[in-house]
Design a protein that fits this description.
seven-stranded mixed β-sheet, 6 helices, globular, single chain, 25% strand, alpha+beta, 32% helix
Length: 165
């Protein structure tokens, strides 16, 4: 489905301008509570990136097309005590619906299990984000009881390592 090969790499300071545009896009951020975008600045992102990547348990990736076009981001964050990794992905509207999210999230799930040492990965899609629900269902995420150690939320979809392999 992906017309171009995608490149997924660990986010660096070189990616901050693109991340700022992604996060300040209301269409991208509406399902995380920011319908007008986050309104962040490069200065804020320079502080953020210091905490964004704490290998091997937390990694943030930037997604590009082979031609250098920025697509979006994905990440995992593993709680070392519970071996549970939160996942997320955000893509610019212009590249949505092209199979990029599937490919990038497959990559991130593999990394969370292998490098992040997670035993399970989970997502929390907004109830109205139909595209995200379809994506997660295709990848094998299933609704399970929410672990008590997580903050309250209406949605919890999970894949366990032994279900993934």
């Amino acid at each position: 489905m992906v017309d171009n090969k995608i490149i997924i790499r660990e986010t660096s300071r070189d990616d901050l301008d693109n991340i700022m545009k992604l996060w300040n896009n209301g269409e991208v951020m509406k399902f995380v509570g920011f319908p007008h975008g986050l309104g962040t600045t490069i200065k804020n992102l320079e502080k953020w990136i210091i905490q964004a990547i704490k290998l091997p348990y937390r990694c943030h990736y930037s997604i590009y097309l082979e031609d250098g076009t920025y697509c979006g981001e994905t990440f995992y964050n593993t709680d070392v005590n519970t071996k549970t990794a939160a996942l997320d992905i955000k893509l610019l509207p212009i590249v949505q619906g092209k199979g990029i999210a599937s490919e990038a999230l497959l990559y991130t799930i593999d990394k969370a299990f292998e490098e992040g040492k997670a035993e399970r990965v989970y997502v929390e899609p907004h109830k109205d984000n139909i595209s995200a629900w379809k994506l997660y269902e295709r990848l094998g995420f299933v609704s399970k009881p929410r672990p008590v150690y997580l903050e309250d939320n209406d949605v919890y979809l999970e894949i366990e390592r032994d279900e993934w392999i």
